[in-house]
Amino acid sequence: MGYLSSRYARYNRGMAGDLFAEMKRYVGFTEADARTLADLRSRISPYLPEVVDRFYTALLADPTARAVLEADPNRLPRLRVYLREWLEMLFCGVYDTAYYEQRCRIGRTHVRVDLPQHYMFTAMNIIRIKLSERLRAFQLPNACEALNALHKLLDLELAIMNETYREDYVDRIQSIERLEFEQRISESEHLATIGQLAASLAHEIKNPLAGISGAIQVLGAELNDGHPHKEIIAEALRQIDRLDAAVRDLLLYARPKQPSLRREDVSQIVAHALILLRQEPAFLPVRVRCEGLTEQHWALVDETQIKQVITNLMINAAHACEDGGSVECRISKHGDKVRLVIEDDGVGMQPHVLARAFEPFYTTKARGTGLGLAICRRIVETHQGTIEVESEPGMGTRVTIELPGAA
Ligand code: HEM
Description:
- By secondary structure, this protein is an alpha+beta fold.
- It folds into 3 domains: 3-183, Orthogonal Bundle (Globin-like), CATH 1.10.490.10; 189-254; 262-404, Histidine kinase-like ATPase, C-terminal domain (Heat Shock Protein 90, 2-Layer Sandwich).
- It has 14 helices and 7 strands.
- It has helices at residues 3-8, 16-27, 31-44, 48-60, 63-69, 75-90, 97-112, 119-138, 143-221, 230-254, 266-277, 303-320, 351-355, 372-382, and strands at 262-265, 287-291, 298-301, 326-334, 337-344, 386-392, 396-404.
- The strands form 2 sheets. The chain has a 5-stranded mixed beta sheet with strand order 2-4-5-7-6, with helices on one face.
- Helix 3 packs across helix 9 and helix 9 (143-221) packs antiparallel against helix 10 (230-254).
- It is elongated, with a radius of gyration of 36 Å.
- Residues 59, 65, 68-69, 75, 78-79, 82-83, 86, 105-106, 109-110, 113, 115, 119-120, 123-124, 127 line the site of protoporphyrin IX containing FE.
- Protoporphyrin IX containing FE binds next to helix 5, helix 6, helix 7 and helix 8.
């Protein structure tokens, strides 16, 4: 349940009595007020039709309210009767849960006919002014108490009307949240199925691929250096490597390994990853700068998995610098966390691509499984860490990882 709906969940309809008692306490409405209003019932009753007249004359002067009231020719006569009953009930003397429920029902009618909430304030003011005038005209010995009781009750009526609008608002938020939740569940079920399928396919592909690679290497070894087929063999092996990497990614994503955590110096892991990355063709035109590697940054991590995260992110960064650019890798301490930032000044991502960056199988690259970042996130999260991506088209991308540090 989201913030808004959980914050207000305590106000569910089953707790109507508690809520009404709380409202009464809040405006200071007492049993004495209830008695004062009940004592006025017979005196005020003959004047209520005039309040009804004043009310609808004022409403009909407003074009929007008029359109609502005249939407159906029987509506206004019906409403005059309803409002008269509503006004009579103000002086009934018993303001219990049944009263509250009855008033809520009226409020819900307003919500159902899509009446804007702000109308309630002006409309209640018309009633307030008219009834106050009448009470003053009575010149009661307890005029002050009577007026106070009336104002408190009309404030309660407003609070009830607002409550029905709030209920409706919360209902709508909850149904949006429910929809989003159901969508997420069906997406994750869908992904789990794809993952299983991908894993079994990857398994089927892996062994024959190793066989083909071995066979081609044997054939290649029999050719002299200048042989015209030598380059074909090399290209075939490169393609097999790509396939192998894709299969490895699929298996990694579909069957994640639990990290085997040890206290490691993350600076060292980054340094080792960088040594291997220097061999990568994508890094040839790219300047790589590092910060913080000379200091030790201890964390409880699975070295192989974190090295893989760094490698994936660095390769992504290098690919983003299409025509040569720079990639920066900064490592630092942040409170009790180790923070690793990998930043490039490459092509960046459009907002809609950024929004889906961690989504498995989502890729904008012609060659790619769309699993790189999904795997990174899964690994970082199983290390109880966080990963965030910021990007601006044409400016570059920054990935920030935080891992819990170890003393
Ligand atoms: C303090 C202000 C108001 C009070 C006390 C009040 C009272 C009522 C009552 C008692 C009902 C009958 C509800 C039911 O039994 O389900 C009702 C319904 C309705 N009210 Fe109000 N109302 C107020 C303000 C307004 C305003 C400002 C408008 C329009 C501009 C409005 C339009 C309606 C409409 C369209 C219905 C539904 C009528 C039908 O088609 O049956 N009300 N109202």
